[in-house]
Design brief:
Distance between the termini: 36 Å
Number of strands: 9
Structural class: alpha/beta
Helix content: 40-55%
Shape: globular
Bound molecules: N-carbamoyl-L-aspartate
CATH architecture of the largest domain: 3-Layer(aba) Sandwich
Strand order of the largest sheet: 7-6-5-8-9
Length: about 375
C-alpha cells in the first residue's frame, strides 16, 4: 500500500475524530481530492458524482467485449479484497464480488461471526487488523452504526492502513447504494437535463431505511430538486434528515398522500419495511402500510418518463406485475451497482486514468 494513504484521519485521536461534524469528517476523508476510505455519503460532491458516473459508464462499455474484460481484469490482479459482511446481504455482497472480479481482484469473506474468532471473544478491532494483514481493502457491512468509521480510524493507527468501504452500517449510512442510486438517476434523466429540477418521492420505511438517508444527502448536490417523504407516521423520515435538507436549501415535504403525488414526480423510490429493527417482534405489522404500495393501476397515472426505483429486496410494496414496465428500473439499478462499485474501487487504487484512456481509445466515436 506504499503509495496509498489516508492522510486525513491518521493524525487524530479517536475522541477528536468521532466528535467532528459529518461535514468535517467528509472533508478530512476527501483531503486528497478523492476517496481512500468510503464511509459517508457526504464525502461525495457533485463533481465527484459525475466523475464516478463517467468512470462507471466507461467500465460498463469496456466490459462488453472479451478484450475489454481482459483489460479490466488486469487492472488490479495484484490486489485482494476482504468482504466482511456480518449483516445479511445478497445484492451488495454479490455486486462487490462481481466488481472485484471484473477488476481481477481476488476476494476473501467472513459473513457470520459464528465462523470467525469473534465467537471466541475477539474484538472487531482485532478482526479488522487481521483482515488488513492479508487484504488490500476491507468492504464491510454491519448492523452497528458507525463501525466502519471506527475501523478506518483503528487501521489509520496501524502499519497497514488499508481502505475501508462501508457497505451499509446500522440504520444510518449506505454510501455505495447512494452512489448507484445517483448513477441510475443520472442515466434515467440523461436526455432530460440530468437530476436538476427533478421531483423525487421516497416511500416506505423512511425512519429506518439507510438508503433513503444516504441518497437524500447526495441529492442536496443538485439544484431545484424537490424531495417528498411519504410513509405512515411512525415510519416517517427523521428530523435530522429534514434539518440537513433545510440547511442545504433543498426543498422537501413530508406527505401522506401517495396516490395524489404519483402524477407529480419524476422518480418514485420505494423501500421495504425494515422490521428487523422493531423494538418488539411484530411491532411493524401493527402499522397500516396498505396505502403505500405501488400497484399496476399506478402505472396509468405516472408521468410517461418517470422511473420507479427500489434498493431491493422487496416484499409486496411493488407488485411484480409492474416489473415489465420500462419505467420500472430497479433491476437495472441493481446492475448499476456493480459498475459503480467497480468504478469506486478502481478509483481508490488509482486505475481510473488508465481505464478512461482505454475507453477514449476504443470508444471515442460513440
Ligand atoms: C438495503 C440495505 O441493506 O440497506 N439493501 C441493499 O443494500 N440493496 C435495503 C434493505 O435492506 O431494505
Amino acid at each position: 500500500m506504499s503509495q496509498l494513504h489516508d492522510r486525513g484521519i491518521s493524525g487524530l485521536e479517536w475522541p477528536a475524530f468521532v466528535d467532528l461534524s459529518i461535514q468535517e469528517k467528509a472533508a478530512l476523508l476527501m483531503a486528497e481530492g478523492r476517496e481512500f476510505h468510503v464511509l459517508l455519503a457526504q464525502q461525495f460532491n457533485r463533481n465527484r458524482l459525475e466523475v464516478l458516473g463517467n468512470l462507471a459508464t466507461a467500465i460498463r462499455r469496456i466490459a462488453k467485449s472479451e478484450a475489454g474484460m481482459k483489460f479490466l481484469g488486469s487492472m488490479l490482479a495484484h490486489r485482494r479484497a476482504m468482504l466482511y459482511f456480518t449483516q445479511p446481504s445478497t445484492r451488495t455482497f454479490l455486486s462487490f464480488c462481481a466488481a472485484c472480479q471484473i477488476l481481477g481482484i481476488q476476494i476473501g469473506e467472513v459473513r457470520d461471526t459464528a465462523t470467525s474468532s469473534e465467537c471466541k471473544g475477539e474484538t472487531q478491532e482485532d478482526s479488522v487488523r487481521t483482515f488488513s494483514s492479508y487484504f488490500d481493502v476491507i468492504i464491510m457491512r454491519s448492523k452497528i452504526g458507525g463501525l466502519a468509521e471506527r475501523m478506518a480510524w483503528v487501521l489509520s493507527q496501524s502499519e497497514r492502513p488499508v481502505p475501508i468501504i462501508n457497505a451499509g452500517s446500522g440504520k444510518d449510512q449506505h454510501p455505495t447504494q447512494a452512489l448507484l442510486d445517483i448513477y441510475t438517476l443520472q442515466r434515467s434523466f440523461e436526455k432530460r437535463d440530468g437530476i436538476d429540477s427533478k421531483k423525487i418521492m421516497f416511500v416506505g420505511d423512511l425512519a429506518r431505511g439507510r438508503t433513503v438517508r444516504s441518497l437524500s444527502y447526495l441529492l442536496t448536490n443538485y439544484s431545484n430538486v424537490k424531495l417528498y417523504f411519504v410513509a405512515p407516521e411512525p415510519l416517517q423520515i427523521g428530523e435530522d434528515v429534514l434539518a440537513m435538507l433545510k440547511e442545504a436549501g433543498t426543498e422537501c415535504e413530508v406527505r401522506y398522500d401517495f396516490d395524489a403525488l404519483i402524477p407529480e414526480v419524476d422518480a418514485i423510490y420505494m423501500t421495504r419495511i425494515q422490521d428487523e429493527w422493531d423494538s418488539e417482534q411484530g411491532a411493524s405489522t401493527k402499522i397500516d402500510t396498505s396505502k403505500y404500495k405501488f400497484a399496476v393501476r399506478h402505472l396509468d397515472i405516472m408521468k410517461p418518463d418517470a422511473v420507479i426505483m427500489h434498493p431491493l429486496p422487496r416484499r409486496d410494496e411493488i407488485s411484480t406485475d409492474v416489473d415489465h414496465d420500462p419505467r420500472a428500473v430497479y433491476w437495472r439499478q441493481m446492475r448499476n451497482g456493480m459498475w459503480v462499485r467497480a468504478a469506486l474501487i478502481s478509483s481508490i487504487f488509482r486505475r481510473d486514468s488508465e481505464i478512461l484512456r482505454y475507453h477514449e481509445e476504443h470508444f471515442s466515436l460513440s
